[in-house]
């Protein structure tokens, strides 16, 4: 059992290092892309690329918040936070998702003829705008995969929100390419139409992150199989006659479990205590995300 916990601890540490790397990449990449797209959009006379640049600069701020929540959420329990700080990640996911949805709304507004970017323009330089947008799309898609892989491995709602944000950025860059290409061909309607379609996709992605983070904050267990898995694992332990109740408490990227078991009422306190410890070990080993188990022992049939 000790070897299992040692291996699980090493795997969790490696996963968190991957999460740190993903967050660092997100912060640095969004800052660089924001500056390049903003200045490049002004030079190329592309309002869509300017909007995309502001979007990336906003992402620089939101990914910084997500990174901070990732680090703070890893802190152990203390006198004020008895279950740890894991829900800070869920709170950050709600914030990042909200900003993402709001950003999509701003892009939708900018698609209107009277939108805030209507006055940005000048002579279009298609080659420059297309090159910047294509590079941005490739980089953001790569970043979405890196952050998504780390988020799934750590079950991190904040990283998953950042991953969706990166994919939304890739779509934003795609809209720039469509809009610039259409404008270069004389089809002025392509830029606002593409902007509107991608903006709606960004809003949906943002709302999904808000809902996922909100699920954790209100203690909703989204995995319907988790409770039955816990029940089966507890029943396998020698001495457990029945499982009376199972409750799962989400903590962001992890769970704590409260379980009531029934044992032979004729057992000694020490024997019941040993069975409870065996159940705790079995449930902790069941999934990497289970970080705490509380076991209450009842007399069977009482």
Report the helical percentage.
55-70%
Radius of gyration: 25 Å
Total of DSSP H or I helical runs spanning 4+ residues: 8
Write the CATH homologous superfamily of the largest domain. Answer: Cation efflux protein transmembrane domain
Overall average residue pLDDT: 82
**Which consecutive residue ranges, at least 5 long each, have pLDDT under 50?**
1-8
Beta content = 5-15%
Strand segment count: 3
Overall domain count: 2
How does the helix and strand content classify structurally? mainly alpha
CATH class of the largest domain: Mainly Alpha
Give a brief rundown of this model:
By secondary structure, the protein is mostly helical.
Description of the molecule:
The two termini are 33 Å apart. The chain has a 3-stranded mixed β-sheet with strand order 1-2-3, covered by helices on one side. 42% of the residues are buried. The protein is elongated, with a radius of gyration of 25 Å. It has helices at residues 2-44, 47-73, 87-110, 126-154, 157-184, 190-217, 226-236, 269-286, and strands spanning 242-250, 255-263, 290-299. α5 packs antiparallel against α6 (190-217) and α7 (226-236) packs across α8. It has 2 domains: 2-217, Alpha-lytic protease prodomain-like, CATH 1.20.1510; 226-299, Alpha-Beta Plaits (2-Layer Sandwich). Helices cover 69% and strands 9% of the residues. It has 8 helices and 3 strands; from the N terminus they run αααααααββαβ. The chain is mainly alpha-helical and 302 residues long.
